[in-house]
């Protein structure tokens, strides 16, 4: 009886060890995949940085500096234009930068009037972005800077790499991303007059409709 019990305990111990090694291997493999995905994102960001050009539009630059003063940000965060984005984003922890899509700058109209091509057509075409719409977008991105969302983003990615197997982590991080965007929208609304609320909301909706198929669709206004 004694040797049978010892044999049973030995088999159970070996089985549990094998199962543990298998689970450990799965966890490490998943971490490796997540690290590869993070590296791919970093390389894409690197491509974005090397291809972007300093913002040349003088009117938007003046508007941007007014936004910095309005938000009482003393740091001169550089602004760049790029063809690789369809939505404005701010990236960088120690050296933050704002990237604006070229189409947004090309469609900018200081008076908010329709572009000349629209006036020459019999059918409706998208109007250009006026000063107030560009201002809303810039204020939203600058709120990300004031809320230190870049640091939060790094910590979120780290948690996702380590705990990728936990579905609650995925759910929590998704909710955090949504809450982060809503917090920025709320902070912007606190800076606006009551009669600007609807215009700000329409800007988020109209812009989101144009970028709904891009990976940065939640970059302006959240879910």
Give a short overview.
This protein is α+β, with helices and mostly antiparallel strands and 223 residues long. It has helices at residues 2-51, 58-70, 102-106, 116-119, 131-146, 149-162, 167-191, 197-210, and strands spanning 53-54, 79-82, 89-91, 97-101.
What's the arrangement of secondary structure elements?
Layout: H1 2-51, E1 53-54, H2 58-70, E2 79-82, E3 89-91, E4 97-101, H3 102-106, H4 116-119, H5 131-146, H6 149-162, H7 167-191, H8 197-210
Explain the overall architecture:
- With 223 residues, the protein is an alpha+beta fold.
- 63% of the residues lie in helices and 6% in strands.
- The chain has 8 helices and 4 strands, in the order αβαβββαααααα.
- The chain has helices at 2-51, 58-70, 102-106, 116-119, 131-146, 149-162, 167-191, 197-210, and strands at residues 53-54, 79-82, 89-91, 97-101.
- It has a 4-stranded mixed beta sheet with strand order 1-2-4-3, with helices on both faces.
- Helix 2 (58-70) crosses helix 5 (131-146), helix 5 (131-146) crosses helix 7 and helix 6 runs antiparallel to helix 7.
- It is elongated, with a radius of gyration of 24 Å.
- The termini are far apart.
- 18% of the residues are buried.
Q: Features of this protein?
A:
223 residues; alpha+beta; 4 strands; 63% helix; four-stranded mixed sheet
Q: What helical percentage do the residues reach?
A: 55-70%
What is the N-to-C succession of helices and strands? HEHEEEHHHHHH
Strand proportion, as a percent range, falls in: 5-15%
- For the secondary structure, the number of strands is 4
Low-confidence stretches: 111-126, 211-219
Please state how the strands of the largest beta sheet are arranged side by side. Answer: 1-2-4-3
**Average pLDDT value?**
80
- Radius of gyration (CA) equals 24 Å
Shape: elongated
Distance between the termini: 64 Å
Q: How would you sum up the major sheet?
A: 4 strands, mixed
Category by helix and strand content: alpha+beta
Number of helices: 8
């Amino acid at each position: 009886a004694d040797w049978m019990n010892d044999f049973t305990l030995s088999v159970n111990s070996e089985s549990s060890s094998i199962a543990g090694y298998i689970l450990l291997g799965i966890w490490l493999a998943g971490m490796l995949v997540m690290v590869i995905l993070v590296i791919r994102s970093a390389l894409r960001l690197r491509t974005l940085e090397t291809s972007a050009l300093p913002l040349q539009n003088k009117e938007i630059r003046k508007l941007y500096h007014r936004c910095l003063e309005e938000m009482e940000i003393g740091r001169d965060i550089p602004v760049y234009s790029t063809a690789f984005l369809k939505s404005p984003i701010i990236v960088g922890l120690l050296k933050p930068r704002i990237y604006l899509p070229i189409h947004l700058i090309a469609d900018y109209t200081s008076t908010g009037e329709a572009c000349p091509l629209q006036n020459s057509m019999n059918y409706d075409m998208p109007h250009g972005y006026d000063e107030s719409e560009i201002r809303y977008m810039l204020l939203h991105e600058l709120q990300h800077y004031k809320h230190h969302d870049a640091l939060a983003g790094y910590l979120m990615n780290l948690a996702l790499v380590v705990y990728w197997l936990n579905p609650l982590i995925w759910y929590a991080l998704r909710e955090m991303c949504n809450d982060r965007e809503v917090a920025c929208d709320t902070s912007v609304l606190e800076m606006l007059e009551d009669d600007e609320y609807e215009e700000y909301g329409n800007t988020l909706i109209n812009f989101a409709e144009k970028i709904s198929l891009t990976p940065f669709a939640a970059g302006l206004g959240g879910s």
